[in-house]
Amino acid sequence: MDAMPLGTDRTKKKRTELAHFLRSRRAALSPEDVGLATAARRARVGLRREEVAVLAGVSASWYAWLEQGRPIKVSDGILDAISRALRFDERERVHLYRLADANPPLPLGSEELPDDGLFQRIVDTQLLGPSCVIDRYWDVLAVNEGAAELLRLGREGNDNFLTSLFRGSHGERYLNRPQLARRMAARFRLQSSYGADDPRYEEIAGELAGSDPRFAELWERHEVEEFAPVTVEVDHPEEGRVPFVLFTMDLDEAARTRLLVYLPPGAAGPVSAWS
């Protein structure tokens, strides 16, 4: 394995945390937990480093360096092998990736979501403005009356936030549609990078790029953007141009579901404070 530069204090701290995390998880397992036979009573509880190395398919010296917090490169395949060797659940596996400065993986477990009636109750409590819940592919799972009436979300075929932004009546509701479309394309690009092995992202982007030249141009730019509050201008049938701050909140650790709330003027503070 190649050595890495020592890096910043933050990197060193994460390496120390990584070493402590691995040692603590190793100490919590017995040989019997992982199907290893032992011939004699041990002086210490827990697995030995050499045993973890064998289970993960790496050299004992390299695994020792990892537990010592040395600056060495760690591939996704090795992280997954260590996760299996130490019997990590999904939360522990993601935590390991983050401590190793690797791209956190999408969960491998059940794709089941809570009953969508729960999502509907969530958006119905957002009385300040339109709101909706979308999944990791931006399919609309629930909308409140404001989002349905004002933004047409969940109606008229606007069942996916991204595709309907470009080619649906949902997108026609925004007076700053070009700017919003660029930012949302960049956000979808970033989210797709967390599911690089998931073909659904490529399918959505490819189909949309093939039918909408505006999206095709934006996708080709390969811009990325974090999910942060953004100002949108909506064509209100009674009040005309109305600015909202579109606020996004993850509803679970893996960002499988997100709550989008359109905060109206006053409730969102000065609109100029948001980009």
UniProtKB/TrEMBL annotation:
InterPro entries: Cro/C1-type_HTH, Lambda_DNA-bd_dom_sf, MLTR_LBD. GO terms for molecular function: DNA binding. Keywords: DNA-binding. Residues 21-93 form the HTH cro/C1-type domain. Pfam families: HTH_31, MLTR_LBD. It comes from the Bacteria. Gene3D superfamilies: 3.30.450.180, lambda repressor-like DNA-binding domains (1.10.260.40). This is DNA-binding protein. The lineage of its organism: Bacteria, Bacillati, Actinomycetota, Actinomycetes, Kitasatosporales.
